[in-house]
Amino acid sequence: xxxxxxxxxxxxxxxxxxxxxxxxxxxxxxxxxxxxxxxxxxxxxxxxxxxxxxxxxxxxxxxxxxxxxxxxxxxxxxxxxxxxxxxxxxxxxxxxxxxxxxxxxxxxxxxxxxxxxxxxxxxxxxxxxxxxxxxxxxxxxxxxxxxxxxxxxxxxxxxxxxxxxxxxxxxxxxxxxxxxxxxxxxxxxxxxxxxxxxxxxxxxxxxxxxxxxxxxxxxxxxxxxxxxxxxxxxxxxxxxxxxxxxxxxxxxxxxxxxxxxxxxxxxxxxxxxxxxxxxxxxxxxxxxxxxxxxxxxxxxxxxxxxxxxxxxxxxxxxxxxxxxxxxxxxxxxxxxxxxxxxxxxxxxxxxxxxxxxxxxx
Length: 361
What we know:
Layout: H1 5-12, H2 19-29, H3 32-36, H4 40-62, H5 65-74, E1 78-81, H6 89-92, E2 100-105, E3 114-118, H7 125-140, E4 144-147, H8 153-163, E5 168-171, H9 185-194, E6 195-199, H10 212-221, E7 225-228, H11 236-246, E8 250-253, H12 264-271, E9 275-276, H13 281-286, H14 292-299, H15 306-314, E10 320-321, H16 322-329, H17 333-345, E11 349-351, E12 356-359
Helix pairs in contact: 1-5, 2-4, 7-8, 8-9, 10-11
């Protein structure tokens, strides 16, 4: 693993340094290690302000990044940053994606085709039946299932995906080394083997109530669409639905009894414009993915012309700026950007910020 990743971990420990401020730091210093070791005046000049700059200086003197990095590695946790080639492409599309993800398990290319299935912790027999039916359909179509490992609908979704041999991803509202609820430890271990456990919270972060609503943006961000099975009027699943709508994801809601408290939220979502989910097939129909195997095949296409082939040969795991690529293949900026755009659509390359590209192999 790149030793510089530990400096991403360092900034992740600083309350107040989110995606936008970290991006400003990278623009100013052009290197994460230089940013971490910057003087207070330099940090302030990068847009952090004097108060936050002093906070970073204090934290630097209090933490041992080398030891923290060793603990992360010993725990079998991977740190995936914006610049990593396996950072989930769909998550990069959202506004202010998390700069750092802590992962147990692995992201695969197949996880680009994912749907979130979430809902109430107080799932009814009806909600359980619907969740199982929806997840089985997704599994048969090789769609990864994303959820939050919570009691109720989330647990049923993960369990059903595992039973079907499908990929499933659990997004934590705590450190990825902490399993909440504790009764799902065995389930989390199985997910780790057949998918991924993911969090943007530093290792060791406890499962505090305030942590769970923000993590829902990752659940929706990883997914093509979100299915809300059952939700009360104040269910956390409704927060996921709002994030999904803001991110341009399709929101499906399962209609339920007008007398059932667990259906008040989903019925309200339908009234506000969510797609009523009457059959699992509605998901792929609405997303226009009936020919999903053809879409997958298209993603595997090799570079289609000489420009794409030349660019593919210049790219690796380390980000390369578009200007350097133009110089390397003696191409115009218009020609190179057009080719890179097409290669992104094919899943051959990925932009990791600032017009820098890495290859996906």
